[in-house]
Design brief:
Elements: H1 2-23, H2 33-59, H3 66-86, H4 93-117, H5 124-131, H6 133-152, H7 159-174
Helix pairs in contact: 1-2, 1-3, 1-6, 1-7, 2-4, 3-4, 3-7
Length: 184
């Protein structure tokens, strides 16, 4: 689950400006005023994502199952990523990034909840530290493979949002393979 999620988010952080410059402003020329406007808009979209994350974090505890909450959140994020490909209006991207915020909220909380619920107090810090490797390693792999994947999807940076959406959907499916072990 962690692999798919963090792989997807590295692609978002890497390809948002180029993707929306191409899809909304119609340019791939990095020195153009339009590309710079897309870069500025990326900051706005990331703020919208943060707001979506905060709002969704209030909803997550209402789920009876952490797995259902996590999977649902990732599906919403996948829809947000994929919708970005089809949206050509900068303001409509707010919807996409609010949905991406749902995945972000869950990614920052639910995996650690699932892990700590299955651990006793012995060496919990060690296990949490090792678990952080499941955040770093997928991003290293994504960075190493990103250029190759970009070529495979035709070179349009906005296409990487489809890839990210598929990765989050795979993460949502993978949630159900996680074995929960509740402490007594």
């Amino acid at each position: 689950v962690q692999f798919f999620c963090w792989f997807a988010f590295l692609f978002m952080w890497t390809y948002t400006t180029g993707g929306i410059a191409e899809n909304v402003w119609g340019t791939i020329t990095t020195s153009s005023a339009e590309y710079q406007a897309a870069g500025d808009w990326t900051g706005v979209l990331f703020a919208v994502q943060a707001v979506g994350s905060i709002l969704w974090a209030l909803v997550i505890p209402r789920f009876k199952s952490e797995k259902v909450a996590y999977s649902t959140s990732l599906v919403l994020g996948a829809l947000g990523f994929i919708s970005t490909y089809f949206i050509h209006d900068q303001y409509m991207l707010f919807v996409s990034f609010l949905l991406i915020g749902c995945a972000w909220a869950a990614m920052l909380a639910v995996p650690f909840t699932l892990l700590t619920n299955s651990l006793s107090g012995d060496h919990i810090g060690t296990y949490l530290g090792l678990f952080n490797g499941t955040i770093c390693l997928p991003q290293i792999v994504a960075a190493a493979c990103g250029g190759f994947i970009l070529k495979m999807v035709g070179g349009a940076q906005v296409s990487m949002f489809i890839v990210a959406g598929v990765l989050l959907a795979l993460g949502a499916l993978s949630v159900y393979f996680v074995k929960e072990k509740k402490r007594a």
